[in-house]
Amino acid sequence: MTELQERESVIDELIDDLVPAGMDWERLVVTYPIPALLLAAIGGFLLGRRHGPEIIAAVSGFAAAEVSRNVEPFLGREAG
Amino acid sequence: MADKAKPEISEAAEMAREAIEDGVVSARERFQRLGDEVQSKYKKVSEDVRKGAERASQEIRRGAERARETYEDVAETAQRSYHRARSEAGNLSREVSLYVRDNPGKALLIAAGVGFVLGLLARGRGGSDEE
Fold it and tell me: For residue B125, which residues of chain A lie inside 8 Å, CB to CB?
């Protein structure tokens, strides 16, 4: 599996987690591409408007934790 | 004496008649000249008015023709621009649809991301609904 395919499958899994189970979102998006895009953009807009800073803070915290988790072994090794 | 005065009176009367006739003729001629002058002036004025009206009519016709040509040019340009914009919008819509069909998840994520950023910007400008 190439890196691009892997990334796309990650995106698909993410969307699968977000939408209700049993909903064939890919078929809907392929059948109605423009309305699906509009709906996604409106959803993103509302999410950004209502909970934007919280989401950014959570994502930043998650990224910082991941970075520190990955860097910790090297720092620990050097300190030890 | 009365016989002697009679021809003199008749001569004087004749002279007076001739004088009156001359006056009448002269007055008639003068009136005739005046009438001719008035008529020629009337003709000149009416000719000037007619020429002015013709010129004004030609100018109005020319202006209307120019306005019609300008209107047609503008209408044609607007129609061409509308058709071009419509065709470009159709092409863009087709390309977007193709991209979305090829990469549905990615396209949805990009759209949601763009919406999210716009929502953040809108919140920054106008304040959130909850605040």
Answer: none
Give this complex's ipTM: 0.71
Residues A40 and A75 occupy one common structural domain: yes
> In one letter, which amino acid is A38?
L
Q: pLDDT class for A1, splitting at 50, 70, 90?
A: low
Instruction: Give the chain A residue whose CA is nearest to the CA of B97.
Output: A33
Nearest CA in chain A to B127: A49
- Decide: residue A49, CB within 10 A, 0-12 exposed, 13-18 middle, 19+ buried: buried
Helix (H, G, I), strand (E, B) or coil at B112: helix
Range of the domain at A6: 1-31
Residue closest to A46 by CA, chosen among B40, B116, B109: B116
The number of domains in chain B is 1
Domain count, chain A: 2
Q: Is B65 helix (H, G, I), strand (E, B) or coil?
A: helix
CB distance A42 to B115 below 8 Å:
yes
Range of the domain at B97: 2-125
Is residue B131 in a domain? no
Tokens of B90: 């159709």
Task: Indicate the pTM of the whole model.
Answer: 0.54
Contact across the interface for A14 and B112, Cβ inside 8 Å: no
